[in-house]
Design goal:
By secondary structure, the chain is α/β, with parallel strands linked by helices. About 35% of the residues lie in helices and about 20% in strands. The strands form three sheets. Strands 5-4-6-7-1-8-15-14-9-10-12 form an eleven-stranded mixed sheet, with helices on both faces. A two-stranded antiparallel ribbon has the order 2-3.
Amino acid sequence: MRKPDFDRRVVVTGLGVVSPVGNDVDTAWSNLINGRSGIGEITKFDTSPYDHRAAGEVKGFEPTEWLDAKAVRRSEPSLWYGVAAAKQAVGDAGLEITDANREEVGVVFGSGAGGQSLMIDNWTTLREKGPQRVAPTFIANGLVDSPSGMIAIETGAVGHNICIVTACSTGTNCVGEAAEIIRRGDVHTVIAGSTEMPLLEVAHAGFGNMRGLGSPREGEPIQTVSRPFDRTRDGFVLGEGAAALILEDLELARARGARIYAEVVGYGSSADAWDMIQPIEGGAGSARAMRWALERRGVPADEVSLINPHGTSTPLGDKREAEAIIRVFGERARAANRSLAISGTKSMTGHMMGAAGAFEAFATVKAVHEQCVPPTVNYREYDPEADVWVVTEPTPMAIRYALSNNIGLGGHNGAVIFGRYES
């Protein structure tokens, strides 16, 4: 363990993804940048009783490629996805975890709700077959922190290990806190990210009764269901998956010749202290997190070129987030000025809940590294109540700083800023 150094530079050296738009970095990025949606009809349960039938499902994923068969049988998809994304990221970073360095490698990996499918399955077994048939392993494998524990087991990382839970801002907070843990000196490398599998019938019913789910444009394909900031938006669509980032102390990353995607240059976290569901008036809580992210390491607001927003496609949520963005970035954030690009990737993935922040950190890092902004698909009609510049085509752009923003149920807010790496 090293002494704290809050000027320590932290960089991203590895990425991993399991998502509705692809189960590896190259596929997911190609689909995002080309505006190919991963949203379709739900296949995980019978949707005939429901008006809303869309989701961003993971497709073609084989868990035994990442875990042994026994571990797969005992666990559930959110754990599978998290382990797969983490192992991808470790490989992408060229990171070798050995006896010599494992104490200096940590894990900060969260989930909004954990392995609820195991609880549901074992409750069904209890009612139908009796208590003796309930699996003795389901509790350990279905906790919210089960992915962070299994990632450590599978990679051999024995350093600082925590699971953060802040609903839909979980992944953002995991990435931001991971950078601060490195600056604090606890470890020099962190496997950071989050995972979620919320495509459960009971969750679908609950969100539907909450009146949170959206519908496609009338007479148009189901893929149009998610249209962040569009005047016709009417609700979100659930998605599943995971993403992981390898964060490292810059000096050590350079010493081992690692490829550097981007630098983590800002992080803010705040609470609305307002309502368990609705965002606070004027987006004050989200604005506070973004402002603190800028202030933490002195990032000039006028040098941020891109925001990957929470942008879930709900009428009030997108309005409040747009208000927050304008509150922090001023008049340059308004649509007419075309100065601050908004890239709403939930338009293609749906809302991956606890995994959203990590996946959108991946998308933001790639945008910075490639100097190109993914489009917000389905956006057509400007909304004066969400007066921000929503990018609708793949857009090459000089990006020095980009911000990933997320907002969680319970009033949690998180913002992380990534910068183009400059030696």
